[in-house]
Amino acid sequence: MHELSYTQGVLDIALENARKAEAKRVTRINLVIGGMSGIVDDSVRFCFELLSQDSIAHNAELTFRHVPTRLRCRECDLAFEPESEQWGCPRCRKWDVELQAGSEFYVDSIEVD
Amino acid sequence: MKITVLKNILDANLQTAERNQRLLESHDILAINIMASPGAGKTSLILKTIEGLGKEVAIGVIEGDIASTVDADRISQAGVPVVQINTGGGCHLDANMVANALDTMDLKKMDLLFIENVGNLVCPAGFKLGEQKRVVLASIPEGDDKPHKYPSMFSQTEAIVINKTDLLPYLEFDMEDFKGTVNSLNHGVKLFEVSAKTGGGFDAWLSWLKEEISLLRK
């Protein structure tokens, strides 16, 4: 259940920014999530429903922009998107790779009334 | 109205982790976050390390488990201060839990702190606790394919300890393949082959810990 800790983070950030803007209601939270995070959208939505009760973010819509994990092979320089956790290079089969994208994990923006 | 935020979801955890790290560094304590799957031998590694270093290095332990005090009881019997954190179902420790544990410990009398994370090769990788070093423990019966399955965990650690080497004659574990994979994923990672049962291979592991403690004090 690591989604619970993550979702609490999302809610805290949304409420803090809404408060600074003196907003009455948070209507939408836009998230950017890299492929390495292992986050399940539905679990976050479920946790958010529970955690946001009695807050001005209750019923806010959550949107997820997923950034695929992107690796570059140090051996043959091929950039590729691995399937799940298989980080081997599809061309030369080496596991000598550098992470280029996929660790993103942030609240991009919120929409408020 | 749209408000641009661009803030890491784990920002609160990162900030608490940084506070923990500053607190530990102000006391010259080397804090090590030990991560592994359940049953790899995290507590046994700590106990054998206490046996080898306990006379010259003041060691403290934070035990993270979903439930029970079984591990903390074993550490306590070795005469070392230990705090048990029960996550109550949570699959990893976070920086706030560690901050609360540190509050109850006497940091003035400590050189080395082991933080034993919840047995899990997935989520603990995402949560910094305030440690100076991360150590991933793998064990022979788990098989040599674990770095292939959990690259995120094995690529974000300073050292990897391979435990239960006394079982190598009885099991199929391709050590060269394992080492090749982790070296590719994580250039320059320190590797130690040990048996927490027999004490085999512990000299190199204990020397590394002592070296890291003295580096911290410089």
Q: Output the structural class of chain B.
A: alpha/beta
Task: Tell me, briefly, the overall form of chain A.
Answer: elongated
What is the helical fraction of chain B, as a range of percent? 25-40%
Q: What value does the Rg of chain B take, in angstroms? A: 17 Å
What brief labels describe this structure?
heterodimer, A: 113 residues, alpha+beta, hypothetical protein PF0899 fold, 3-stranded mixed β-sheet, 3-stranded antiparallel β-sheet, 2 helices, elongated, B: 218 residues, alpha/beta, Rossmann fold, 7-stranded parallel β-sheet, 8 helices, 8 strands, 37% helix
Descriptive account of the structure:
The complex is a heterodimer of chains A (113) and B (218). In chain A, the strands form 2 sheets. Chain A has a 3-stranded mixed β-sheet with strand order 2-1-6, with helices on one face. A 3-stranded antiparallel β-sheet of chain A has the order 4-3-5, with no helix packed on it. The two termini of chain A are 31 Å apart. Chain A contains 2 helices and 6 strands. Chain A is an alpha+beta fold and 113 residues long. Chain A has a domain at 2-68 and 102-112: 2-Layer Sandwich (hypothetical protein PF0899 fold). Chain A is elongated and about 55 Å long. The mean pLDDT of chain A is 91. Chain A has helices spanning 2-20, 41-52, and strands at residues 26-34, 61-67, 70-73, 79-80, 97-101, 105-112. With 218 residues, chain B is α/β, with parallel strands linked by helices. Chain B has a single domain (11-217), classed as Rossmann fold (3-Layer(aba) Sandwich), CATH 3.40.50.300. Chain B contains 8 helices and 8 strands, in the order βαβαβαβαββααβαβα. A 7-stranded parallel β-sheet of chain B has the order 4-3-5-2-6-7-8, sandwiched between helices. In chain B, helix 1 (11-26) runs parallel beside helix 4. The interface between A and B is medium-sized, with 36 and 32 residues. Strand 6 of chain A pairs antiparallel with strand 1 (2-8) of chain B, so a sheet runs across the interface.
